[in-house]
Amino acid sequence: MKTRSDLLLRDALATVFVRGAAGDAAARRALEELDSWSPASPPGPALGELRSEDETPLFEADGPLTEKFAGLEGYVRDRARRFTSALAWIQEDGASGDPIACARAAWDAGLFFEVHELLEPVWMQERGKRRHVLQGLIMAGAALHHLTQDNLAGARGLLREAARRLSEATPEEPLDLARFGRELGELAQLIENGQVKHTDEIQKLPRLAPRASD
Q1: Which of 85, 136, 171, 179 could link 166 by a cystine bridge, Cβ 3.0 to 4.6 Å?
Q2: Which helix (H) or strand (E) is 18 found in, with range?
């Protein structure tokens, strides 16, 4: 996504997902309506209320995307599918109050930009070593987002810096962030070697998984 309209739509949908992941009822209604959205039918009431940062409605009253976002229907459908998958896990796991658990669900659903959006507010309030760890997770999301946009150099650099920061994770973290960091470093090397040029080419996505019990 590279045009101003692309970015406005991306940010608007990501904001709704972040709010829905946190348990906001109106946002969850909008996400449910987005999952069944069709350009041939009027959007649901919650969906019809969505606006971009510049106050442009996302959807026309009769169903299609508004003119500013015309041509981005495929992106909307892809995001709707991923949002539904991530939100189902969040609800099933009771993770709405845990930004890192929500970020894990987003990561597994391929919502890499949204990982950044979920964790940045938490990172801004954190201090000490954990702030570095959270920034590592944010950088991991940003790196994979860059990779979806074919920015190989940006992705590689962010992956390496994320791996460095995640190496500071303590054993008290519920997720095995040290292993995740090592896998990010391995992915950076694959990119440098020319073996991975897009997220579609990643054979084994680095896993944000719980720490194995002793």
Answers
A1: 136
A2: helix 4-21
